Amino acid sequence: MGRLFVVTLGFDEKFAVRALMRRGVGRDDAVVVFLPREESRDERAARALEALRGIVEGLVQGGLREVELNVGDFVSAVAAVRSTVREYGASEVYGSLSGGMRALVVEVLLGLMMLEGVRVFVDVDLESLRGYVSIPLHVFKAPRRDRWISILRALEEAGGVRGVSAVTGYSPATVSREIKQMKALGLVDEELRLTEAGRLYLRIHSA
Fold first, then answer.
1. Calpha distance 126→59 (Å, rounded)
2. Nearest Cα to Cα of residue 136 among 118, 157, 152, 153
3. Closest to 14 (Cα-Cα) out of 62, 51, 44
């Protein structure tokens, strides 16, 4: 399987479609839309779902998977989001949470935040339609560790395990172990360079 895309839907499918196009959804990817139960949807929402269904079927081999949530039952809705996403076993999940009921959006967001060992990127479009905010949720879940902050700063300056060791005073073995953990969270790439997520981690925890 390719990547997993998760969307919420309101009266207009354009936010979800824009996010899929922006991320370059492909034939081998999977797309899941979370919806309130049918009795909570009106004609506008039904039309948006039908339009999204047609667009996704032309882009993704497996078509659109529709998952209804009992939005009024917060705990079951969050649990359903988490269990649904976990079924796919994806290492990276891309979410578009620009449409839909506020409660639905919050429940999907929290369900995504509960995932373990998964990199989750959430896109939220600006109301002006002139841009969007991309939020790497896994960065906000990463624990604040002074050692990580020191190593990330040293990587920007020195680079390499031995260079970081010389700057920080940590042993090369310790530096290698900590970098391995940060790689798993997407803070450092295979070339031992800070990723965008790594730079964000530094900004958040250095403020």
1. 25
2. 118
3. 51
Could you give the C-alpha distances from 184 to 4, 100, 195, in angstroms and in order? 18, 32, 12
From the CA atom positions of the chain, what is the Rg in Å? 19
Q: Enter the tokens of residue 45.
A: 């929402």
Among 1, 9, 3, CA closest to 119: 3
Each residue's pLDDT tens digit, 126-183: 887 788 999 999 898 889 999 999 999 999 988 789 999 999 999 999 999 999 999 9
Q: Integer distance in angstroms from the first to the last C-alpha of the chain?
A: 39
Q: SS3 for 179?
A: helix
Helices (H), the chain: 14-22, 43-57, 74-86, 102-113, 137-141, 146-157, 161-168, 172-184, 196-206
Q: What is the mean pLDDT of residues 51-71?
A: 95
Angstrom distance (rounded) from CA 98 to CA 89:
24
pLDDT in tens, 82-125: 999 999 999 899 999 999 999 999 999 999 999 988 889 999 99
pLDDT score for 117: 83
List the strands of the sheet with 132-136, edge to edge: 64-69, 30-36, 4-8, 92-96, 119-125, 132-136
DSSP 101-130: -HHHHHHHHHHHHT-SS-EEEEEEE-TTSS
